[in-house]
């Protein structure tokens, strides 16, 4: 049983890594099996198709990401500090990936979503749902900042949407430029876009 | 000669449309030739490879876009109005594409760039260079707005980068959601992120 679940996990890890580094169309079931060290017969024991595996891989990655986001966006932390932590961590993560793989990878949801959204409706819906959940963390923080009078926002949800778009747009540009430094000043740029006087509000 | 140049143009148009609607890996030379109504032998008369055609198609599309951006970002227009025009036009364009094709397509530079950036260095560089040129329009407008005292920006280039990321992130989310309405309030959201009092400054 240990061995079986290990093979499934290796397939999830290999699929996420290959699709993120390359692309969905550019990643074959054979390549995933080879990287995972799993035979093709076993692949079809666990997953009915590449799309089925990709959806499971994205969902498994999202579960790990949620624990990290819960920590960054803890209500015990001042609201703008939550945003600063998460945006700073995005830079650190991409810089680490670049050191480890030689490549800035950006956001797997965005890269995969943009590629498959008009080809695979189920995968599109999975990604859409996860993007909505990520956005909810931003809304929560901006709403708390507005309630505390730290930022002026007539429509906190709209400001959060703009902020989340800024992060995702910057991550994808960092990927295309293959340069993690593109993200280095994102926390300052994003908080400036909220018109927040961080020094005064949170010392 | 008219017919020859027409075939080349049809290949450029077909490549851009198919890659934008689907993906680069998901678009074969056969499919491009079929959509263009051009024989495969003619394809290789004009282009050495799919990557060669994709680069030419992106560059041709950029030339048309530049004329449009020159108009939107004319120095004769107040700086924030330039941004509002261009961001409003982005929504109108995606809404039109959605009516015509049933699909929100987002930004072809972003979708193609994210897919191929680690696979095709020449295409990556072409896209990178064009993204830099688009960003320069935003920098120009934000710098003029700061010089006129309409927005406070210690670092106009950084604010422009944030704004451009916001646009590109929103375009890609609109693609993944397949919903042009996601972009409808982008002009207001983007100008709010500059802390601009548009009514007072330009109303």
Structure description:
Two copies of one chain form a homodimer. With 203 residues, the first copy, chain A, is mostly helical. Chain A has one domain: Tetracycline Repressor, domain 2. Helices cover 75% and strands 0% of the residues of chain A. Chain A has ten helices and no strands. Chain A has helices at residues 2-21, 29-36, 40-46, 50-72, 79-101, 108-116, 121-147, 156-177, 186-193, 198-202. In chain A, α4 (50-72) runs parallel beside α7 (121-147), α5 packs across α7 (121-147) and α5 runs antiparallel to α9 (186-193). The longest helix of chain A is centred in the middle third of the chain and has 27 residues, at 121-147. The radius of gyration of chain A is 19 Å and the shape is elongated. The N and C termini of chain A lie far apart (53 Å). Residues 198-203 of chain A have low confidence and may be disordered. Chains A and B meet through α6, α7, α8 and α9 of A and α6, α7, α8 and α9 of B.
Keywords:
homodimer; Tetracycline Repressor, domain 2; disordered C terminus; 75% helix; 203 residues; mainly alpha
Biggest sheet record of chain A = none
Instruction: Report the portion of residues of chain A in β strands.
Output: under 5%
CATH architecture of chain A: Orthogonal Bundle
Distance between the termini of chain A: 53 Å
Please, how many helices of chain A?
A: 10
Quaternary state of the chains: homodimer
How large, in whole angstroms, is the Cα Rg of chain A? Answer: 19 Å
**Helix- and strand-based class of chain A?**
mainly alpha
CATH superfamily of chain A: Tetracycline Repressor, domain 2
The low-pLDDT segments of chain A are 198-203
* CATH C-level of chain A: Mainly Alpha
The total number of structural domains of chain A is: 1
Number of strands of chain A: 0
Order of helices and strands of chain A: HHHHHHHHHH
Mean pLDDT of chain A, to the nearest integer, reads: 92
Largest two-chain interface: A-B, 47 and 47 residues
């Amino acid at each position: 049983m240990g061995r079986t679940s290990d093979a499934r996990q290796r397939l999830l890890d290999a699929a996420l890594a290959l699709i993120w580094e390359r692309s969905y169309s550019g990643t074959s079931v054979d390549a995933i099996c080879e990287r995972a060290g799993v035979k093709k017969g076993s692949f079809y024991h666990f997953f009915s198709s590449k799309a089925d595996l990709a959806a499971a891989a994205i969902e498994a990655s999202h579960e790990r990401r949620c624990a990290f986001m819960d920590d960054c966006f803890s209500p015990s932390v001042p609201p703008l500090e939550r945003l600063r932590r998460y945006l700073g961590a995005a830079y650190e993560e991409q810089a680490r990936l670049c050191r480890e793989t030689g490549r800035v990878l950006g956001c797997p949801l965005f890269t995969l979503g943009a590629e498959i959204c008009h080809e695979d409706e189920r995968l599109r819906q999975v990604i859409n749902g996860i993007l909505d959940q990520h956005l909810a963390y931003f809304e929560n923080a901006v709403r708390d900042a507005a309630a505390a009078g730290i930022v002026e926002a007539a429509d906190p949800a709209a400001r959060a949407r703009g902020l989340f778009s800024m992060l995702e747009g910057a991550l994808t540009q960092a990927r295309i430029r293959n340069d993690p430094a593109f993200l280095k000043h994102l926390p300052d740029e994003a908080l400036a876009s909220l018109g927040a006087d961080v020094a005064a509000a949170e010392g």
